[in-house]
Amino acid sequence: MGINVFASNLTLELFVATLGPDYKSSCLGEDMKPSNGEPAVPEEGKKSFFKEFPAKLRKRHIIETLAAFIGGGWLLIEVVERLIVGHYRFPEETIDLTGVSVTRVSKESAK
Asked: What is the DSSP letter of 28?
């Protein structure tokens, strides 16, 4: 294994030595200097993912929509539980049926 590493390093050195002085120095990184141009990512573009993601959600009103779906579903289940099952003595399976219906409607409206 050590012979293969030595042979590959020797081959690389011989290859670079045959190229000439200009390419050899730039290839080996001797003339590497920091560029004076603009940075690859502008300063305002360096926002953290954890700051940018909630901002996008707020801009697209996804948080409000999600809160409306959750609140509306909760309200409907409470009405069924307290009014229809509690007052009108419907079977308790009506609550489960309402919960399944609310989640199914939410999935279809999200499409």
From this structure: T
